[in-house]
Write a structure and sequence with these properties.
- The protein is globular and about 75 Å long.
- 45% of the residues are buried.
- By secondary structure, the protein is mostly helical.
- Helices cover 71% and strands 1% of the residues.
Length: 445
């Protein structure tokens, strides 16, 4: 509780000093606010940028450049309310609940984000205690208190605070799953539920589902031998994990298919954004994603609409842009197979070298060194370490398969996991060095 209080005060203090009750930045955050505002007013899951009540805090912002950017968004937006399938639903739904209960106060949402981040970091420290003892917990707490990135994310009205909490909770559940046979089905069900919530928070996490299902099967089977019963149970646990995650997402996916009148259960964001990860422009950007609208990607499509005299509704335009983006991406991949491999390397490098990734890069090096000692000095890894490394590796694979974002946003979800692995690894390195200093030969344990 003391640690949670310290993390909470630090988070809220940074928020109060940095953002206060000012509106969120143009882009993703203002989209989430617009959808939440429409939901709170009972209009449905959509956007109405022409609403004067929604516009007011943006047009009264202190920063003149922000006001100009907001005005540009408002002028370019369709008049009136329109549904959307571009943003995943969980953050807007939760924000709408806050608006309905307490009014539209950005400081309150930021304060709640501070609580989510504080909980996530506290869970990371508790995991370090479980896997590495009190010394590892202290190291993890120091890292969590010193790292500015989670506190910065709490001040932004984005998906990161909720994702940090959900990934920390998933890591905790998977570690507990590895500790023994008791209540393993309960942990499988909890992990599936958390996976579903992650997908509803950020659609890209659907790509975590297959590798994590395989990981659950492996963790369930690990040490059980090649008996029929062990293999069947491992398969059933993996299927249960995936089924619960998919079932939780199913209403949202059905809604999108019906709304778009196309087989796009995840919505339109992936199709619209993926050319930023596979295109000549992606090569120029070193694998770092750039908003495709900023470099005129949809110009040929919109020119075709003009020639045909076609004026799509906002939701039709979303759908057609997503289809066009997917088609162009598939064609580019077929034409540039060697570039796909080069892009994967670029994205991997960008994931670890962007500004927000510098500390994470150090943490993963310490964690790898400690993991090596755990494997070759002690002769084994604990099952919980396998689970945590699985989350980190899955995140890396998904980024290299899609796109890396500027400022290292895609490393943020696994920061609590890296705190734990680095803390455990650092303590293990210290123990190894101390043992060598005393002339102790450490064997397998």
């Amino acid at each position: 509780m003391i640690l949670f209080a310290a993390l909470f005060v630090l988070n809220v203090g940074v928020i109060a000093l940095k953002a206060g009750d000012g509106p969120p930045d143009p882009g993703d955050a203002s989209d989430y606010d617009a959808i939440a505002w429409s939901l709170a007013r009972g209009l449905g899951y959509g956007i109405d940028r022409s609403d004067p009540d929604w516009q007011r805090p943006y047009l009264e912002a202190d920063d003149a450049d922000d006001v100009a950017a907001f005005q540009g968004q408002i002028d370019a937006a369709p008049a009136g309310y329109h549904p959307t399938a571009y943003r995943p639903p969980l953050v807007p739904l939760l924000t709408a609940g806050v608006y309905r209960v307490a009014g539209r106060h950005f400081w309150l949402v930021r304060g709640i984000n501070g609580v989510l981040v504080a909980l996530a970091l506290t869970m990371a420290v508790a995991l370090a205690q479980k896997l590495g003892g009190p010394a590892a917990a202290v190291v993890a707490a120091v890292i969590a208190l010193c790292d500015p990135i989670p506190k910065e994310k709490a001040a932004q009205l984005l998906t990161e605070p909720l994702i940090l909490l959900l990934v920390a909770a998933l890591a905790t559940v998977l570690v507990r799953f590895t500790l023994g046979p008791r209540r393993r089905w309960k942990y499988v069900a909890l992990a599936g539920g958390l996976m579903g919530l992650m997908i509803l928070t950020r659609s890209l996490f659907v790509l975590w589902l297959p590798p994590l299902a395989v990981g659950v099967a492996w963790l369930a089977w690990r040490g059980g031998g090649y008996t029929r019963a062990a293999l069947v149970q491992a398969g059933l646990m993996a299927a249960t994990f995936a089924l619960i995650a998919v079932t939780l997402c199913l209403p949202w996916w059905v809604r999108n298919v019906v709304l778009l009148e196309a087989p796009m259960p995840l919505g339109t964001q992936g199709g619209i954004g993926i050319p930023g990860g596979y295109s000549d422009r992606a090569m120029e950007m070193g694998g770092v994603w750039e908003d495709v609208a900023d470099w005129g990607f949809f110009g040929p499509l919109e020119a075709e609409w003009a020639r045909e005299g076609y004026t799509p509704s906002p939701i039709e335009a979303e759908r057609e842009r997503a289809i066009y983006g997917l088609d162009q991406t598939r064609a580019w991949i077929v034409e540039h197979p060697a570039a796909v491999v080069r892009l994967a390397g670029m994205k991997f490098r960008a994931l670890w070298t962007e500004r927000q990734s510098h500390l994470a890069s150090v943490l993963v090096l310490v964690a790898l060194a400690g993991a090596g000692l755990g494997r070759f000095w002690r002769g084994r890894w604990a099952g919980g370490e396998w689970a945590l490394w699985g989350l980190v590796v899955t995140n890396v694979l998904v980024v290299t398969a899609t796109y890396a974002t500027g400022a290292g946003r895609f490393i943020v979800p696994v920061l609590p996991v890296l705190y734990v692995l680095a803390a455990v690894g650092g303590v293990r390195i210290h123990e190894w060095r101390a043992g060598r200093g005393r002339g102790i030969t450490a064997g397998p344990t």
